[in-house]
Amino acid sequence: MSSASRRRIMLWRRGIRECARCGEPLAGPERATLEHIVPRSAGGRTTRANLTLAHAECNRAAGRRLWLGRRRGRAMRAGRTVRGGRRGRARRGARLAAGRAERGSRAYLGIAGGIACEPVLGSRSTYLPARFGGLEGRALRAGDSLPLAPGAAGLAAARYAQLAAGAVRRDGVETVRGSAPPLTLPDREPSTLHAMEGQHFGLFGAAAQRVFFDAVWRVAPESNRMGFRLGGPSLVADRAGELLSGPTCLGTVQVPANGAPIALMADHQTTGGYPKIAEIASADVPRLAQLAPGGRLHFARCTLEDALELARAARARLDAALRAISWGFGK
To answer: H/E/C letters for each residue in the chain?
Structure first.
């Protein structure tokens, strides 16, 4: 592999937009904040693989210490209720069942040491459209067995011992309170998302421009990790014509011929030829990812400077949460 290729992969791993030159999206967690918080809370590094729980109920056998990242909801362990945001130690053979979310739509299960899957292009995430990464490049199925990192049992015991002084026993289950706040859970709907005028905003008439920012949109059932289709008023470009395909980003809002906007998400394509009416501020994309089908949202117009300030504030909140986690481990 040439040095230029290695550099492109390194940039992609860091989440820099030039990664599109590789022809693959960033992929990975829809909620990038928990990409850092969950493995740290479980006593590992941010490069460790964890498990995403989205929308549906599931249950897993457990054998190590675990941490359930924030969506507002509960999990059941050995018939006992464990709230999200708690760290606990599960005995080998115990079963963890994640129920329906009370608020938000995604949670992440962190395990001490992480899940032992080989990195592909510098990441352990699963990229379903190309069928690589994770476990055989596919979604998990009933009966799958996930290998844990070597030494996970010893790491779990050592990490839990560091936190045992703050253990709380409730309903017969001992857990340690999670120190990370729910940074991206929607407080109410419609959720307000900041968005900048896109490259082709001027191709839409004044009425369509006004409707985009005034309307309340709903996440359509056809949405997936590539893009959230938004139900609401139809948007028609007055001067679309033939557009050359151009680069797209996480949070780009495109408008196809049917007039229904599509907000591009973690598995989005790297180029597209539909008019780009808006770009969602990167700080607000994780909150969009927490909306389930039927969830409502509203766009608030912002400038690039506003979006950068929102990103700095979001990073400061994340850094504060990570510091609190480190303090809990005595670091």
So the answer is: CCHHHHHHHHHHHCCCHHHHHHCCCCCCCCCHHHHHHHHHHCCCCCCCECEEEECCCEEEEECCEEEECCCECEEEECCEEEECCEEEECCCCEEEEECCCCECCEEEEEECCCECCCCECCECCCEHHHCECCCCCCCCCCCCCCCECCCHHHHHHHHHHHHHHHEEEECCEEEEECCCCCCCCCCCCCEEEEEEECCCHHHECHHHHHHHHHCEEEECCCCCCCEEEEECCCCCECCCCCCCCEECCCCEEECCCCCCCEEECCCCCCEECCCEEEEECHHHHHHHHCCCCCCEEEEEECCHHHHHHHHHHHHHHHHHHHHHHHHHCCC
What is 191-315's CATH superfamily?
A: Cyclophilin-like (2.40.100.10)
- Domain positions in the chain are 3-181, 191-315
- Each residue's pLDDT tens digit, 265-302: 988 888 899 999 999 999 999 899 989 899 999 999 99
